[in-house]
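Can anyone check this?
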Amino acid sequence: VNPNKADSLVEHRIPSNISSPSYFEFDNDGNIWLIESGPGILTKFDTITNEFTQFVLPSDGVGSETVNPIGLAIDNNGNIWYSQFRTSLIGKFNPNTNEVTEYATGTLTAGTYQIISDKDGNIWTTQFRADRLIKISPQTNSISEFKIPTANTSVSYTHLRAHETLRYLVC
C-alpha cells in the first residue's frame, strides 16, 4: 500500500483453502512469513516476486492432540520459530536447509501460544494452559520453565521491549 494513493492496495490470496493465518513476521530480506493454523503450514511470501512457498509442518501432534501452530518469531540467525497451541511442541524451521527441529516442553498439551526471540537468540513462549513461561536456549539446546506466581491463570502474551524486560499478560 502506498498511503498517498487510494487505489494502491494490492491483495495476494494465500494458496491454502483453509489457511487461518494467525501471526506473520518480516525477515531481513523483506519476505513475509506466516503461520497457518488450520492446515499446519508455514508460508513464505516473497515480496519481490509475489510468490508463495509453503512448508507443511511435520508433527502429527502429541497424544490425541493435532497440530495447531499459532505463534511465530524470527531469531537473529533468520530461523523461523513457531508454537503449537494444542501440543507442547515448539518448532524451529531453518529457511536455508528447510530442516525442522521440534522441542518438547515439559507440560503435554500446555497450549503454547505467542512466541518471541530476545536479543541473545533465546526463544520465549507462553503456556496458556499450564501457567508457565518457557525459555529455549538454542546455543545450549536447553529448555527452562518458569511458573507464573498467580495460580490458575492463563498466560496469553509475552512482549520484549528494547531494554529486554520480559512482560506477560495473564487472564
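Reply from J.R.: I decoded it. The chain is about 0% helix and 45% strand.
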